[in-house]
Amino acid sequence: MAEELSFPRGTKKPAQSPLFWVQNKDRYLRQLLISDIQKVTGRDLLVYFSDCDRSDAQIEQTDDIYLSELLRASTSKFIDLLIETNGGFTDATEKVCSVITSSGKDIRVIVPRRAKSNGTVITFCGGSIVMGLDSELGPIDPHLNGTPCDFIIRLQGIDALVLMAAQAAVLQTKKLASQLLKANMLSAMNEGDIDALVQRLASRDQYYSHGSVIDASEAIRLGLNIELLQPEDALWQQLWLLRTMYAYDCMMRGYSKVFESVNVSSPIVMPRVNTAA
User: Residue 112: how many CA atoms within 13 Å on its side-chain side?
Assistant: First the structure.
């Protein structure tokens, strides 16, 4: 007997009242697509989406709580983490990475569009990164009050406390990135090669802008374990549709972040970027 499809694709009606279902239909439709994707991959799909275009959303201190809830609600050992973020605070990133790696799950990270700065560091929690032609990672060089720490360290006559703060930020980022790569996707690589890779990502010697694009081809050349999906790939088309739903729904509902799985949903409303002249 064929499996009965969930409403609105089949005859099974929702348990919720029609008005409640319609008011929350965006979430229900996203979760139906998550369910469809899980049937293809055989892995639970968790979403950590930030509206990078219309909000100042960053990786911050409360994010680990929402990710922990998603992980606890998952009954599978195999997890896909779909992430979109421009980055954020390194202390918060450390906690997020700790929650992910201590879960005991087999993690794969999916980047439909972008995981920049400390978002790139989070991708190192997985054994591989799924990317497409639209996907990008970025350098992980930390900043201090808007100035690249690598620049501060190279300046002559800089205040000693500022210099020490910049050096500490660089060391913290490099240590976290190295530990994650050595424990996960690059565990078979020579430690010296991993340290050299992290150095390239964490300084301005190779990538001259913090926003530099590391696409799938560049990530592969760097030695990262990348699963490249082409635009015509059926799984990629589902992932891109899901990513587009989050981007549109965040815009329409004023969400800056959404943490979601097939059975958990936590949208976050935060102040929007003021784009007025």
Answer: 24
- pTM (global) more than 0.90: yes
Evaluated on CA atoms 85, 89, 91, 92, the torsion sign reads negative
Digit-coded pLDDT (tens) for 85-121? 999 999 999 999 999 999 999 999 999 999 999 999 9
* Tokens standing for residue 231: 């635009």
| Distance (Å, whole) CA 250 – CA 255 | 4
Distance CA 172, CA 151 (A): 16
The tokens describing 104, both together, are 């005991």
Residue 36, phi then psi, degrees to nearest 5: -60, -45
* Among 52, 40, 29, 188, residue whose Cα is nearest residue 111: 52
Helix, strand or coil, per DSSP, at residue 59: strand
Q: For residue 134, give Cα distances in angstroms to 33, 113, 180.
A: 20, 6, 25
Distances (CA, A) of 157 to 101, 144, 154: 41, 17, 10
Can you tell me whether residue 183 is helix, strand or coil?
helix
Helix boundaries (H) for 52-114: 63-73, 90-101
Cα separations in angstroms, 168 against 22, 123, 150: 50, 22, 11
